[in-house]
Amino acid sequence: MAPVPVGCFAGARVVVLGLGRSGIAAAEALRAGGAEVLAWDDGEAARAAAAARGIACADPASADWSTLRALVISPGIPHLHPAPHPLAARARAAGVEVIGDIELLARSAAPARWIGITGTNGKSTTTALVGHVLAHAGLACAVGGNIGVPALSLPRQDADGTYVLEMSSYQLELCPSARFDVAVLLNVTPDHLDRHGGMEGYVAAKLRIFDAGGGCGLAIVGVDDPTCEAIADRLSREPGRRVVRVSATRRLAHGVSCAGGILVDAMSGAPEEVADLRGVATLPGQHNWQNAAAAHAACRAAGVPAARIAAALATYPGLPHRQEIAGAARGVTFVNDSKATNADAAAKALGCYDAIWWIAGGIEKEGGIAPLAPFFARIRKAYLIGKAAPGFARTLAAAGVAHEVSATLERAVEHAARDAAASTDERRVVLLSPACASFDQFRDFEARGARFRALVAALVAGERAA
User: On the chain, which terminus has fewer CB atoms closer than 10 Å, C or N?
Assistant: First the structure.
């Protein structure tokens, strides 16, 4: 698909740093808008892939930065903490603005509505839910951002369309003029602290979804964690600010709640029960009920009636690698939750099942798995992989949880499948919910989840053959 042209830099020289999917899209969009693009990536393979797309690469380190208008940097590249990339430091020293691809979309003059969704956990599911509901209601929309499709690769939306964008904290730091008509903050727990200089910087990055571009139209805030509840209270005190609170733990007199799986709409009147999500297999657990409540509020703000939202939620197909049923064999269900890259995300999955053979590990996040202690009684045995395995083993040993250091995902799946099949527990689940990043053994969480799927498929095929 042709990129959305970005004409605000026509005739100017712009550096694009990082040539993954979003960087390639940014370079092509800038070229389509008449900019002179200096493209670069520190990886030789990425430069070769860009060259195959007709994007010439040249190291801009030796360029005259007084002639450059902007540095468009991929969100995964540090520009402030823990240490800025040398080109980001060079740009700031020269007074050259440092921005991201979402900012380019904001400057492309597309007249569409913008819905932005952020949070430590649940933002991908909520983004997909909003897109699913809008499409189900027959409304034009394009879903992307951090969820996988670069913003500049999305179909251009006109005045009757909507961009539904998952926004990471990295992206929010790089889009100063992107104004969201509806801005959603689901939750905040410690994550990516090294990239933001600590918790205060991380929260500040998340808050930009409400303040970028002069402020959002409607702020939707999950109030099930103390940080976000305080944020909702603070926003509500700002003159002219419209705030809708969302909860999955208690029924709200004003806002949208889904305590116990019953979706209650109290956005503009008395609380009304509009849906029962307890039977929606693709939205299991309290965390997904919060996601659904937030999506409901966003779609109501976009003009979709409550009844149509409820009908769409019932048909939601789910997302890959987020409590995805990978298969079943010998009475055991295999669940792929590879997207759970921190303890808080893993807690959401661990809380959904009673008899768990748990596969965890990778590159450990701050705090490790100690916060998961309330769920340890559900774990029949843990199978630990990657760099975090020795540390996780010590935590589990201290808590009396059966475990082994499997080292690899292949061995973990083999042993977990064997042990779960031998158990007499009902509703047995082998759960890949690593509570870790994947980069020690896999390209990303998607590659980790895909490998888990393949291993489960082989188990299922073997059972059928037998």
Answer: C
Angle at 107 between CA 102 and CA 109, to 5 degrees: 120
Domains 104-313 and 324-465 agree in fold: no
Pairwise CA distance, residues 405 & 30, whole Å: 49
CATH 3.40.50.720 fits 324-465, yes or no: no
User: From CA 400, how far away is CA 384, in angstroms rounded?
Assistant: 15
Q: Are 401 and 382 in contact (CB under 8 A)?
A: yes
123 is catalytic: yes
Phi, psi torsion values for 459, nearest 5 degrees:
-65, -45
**H or E element at residue 179:** none
pLDDT digits (tens, 9 = 90+) for 19-63: 999 999 999 999 999 999 999 999 999 999 999 999 989 999 989
Of 346, 313, 258, 294, the closest CA to residue 186 belongs to 294
**How do strand 379-385 and strand 324-329 relate by DSSP bridges?**
unpaired
pLDDT of 1: 61
Q: Is 132 among the catalytic positions?
A: no
Q: Which of 85, 136, 146, 206 is catalytic?
A: 146
**What does the pLDDT read at residue 466?**
79
The torsion defined by the Cα of 441, 442, 446 and 452, in degrees rounded to 10, comes to -50
Long-range CB contact pairs, 318-321, < 8 A, 24+: 318/282, 318/283, 319/124, 319/125, 319/128, 320/446, 320/449, 321/445, 321/446, 321/449
Q: Whose CA is closest to 172, among 230, 200, 211, 128? A: 211
Which one from 79, 85, 123, 287 is the annotated catalytic residue? 123
CA dihedral 301, 306, 311, 314 (to 10 degrees): 70
Q: Read off the tokens for 345.
A: 């995300």
Domain covering 104-313 in this structure, CATH number: 3.40.1190.10
Rg of the Cα trace of the chain? 23
146 is catalytic: yes
Domain spans, the chain: 7-99, 104-313, 324-465
Structure confidence at residue 216 (pLDDT): 86
**Alpha-carbon separation of residue 99 from 79, 86, 218, 262 (angstroms):** 10, 15, 24, 41
User: What architecture (CATH level 2) is domain 7-99?
Assistant: 3-Layer(aba) Sandwich (3.40)
Task: Quote the pTM value.
Answer: 0.87
Average pLDDT per 10 consecutive residues for the chain, totaling 466 residues: 85 97 96 96 95 92 95 96 96 97 92 96 95 98 93 95 97 95 94 88 95 89 97 96 97 97 95 96 93 98 97 94 94 96 93 96 94 98 98 98 98 98 96 97 97 97 88
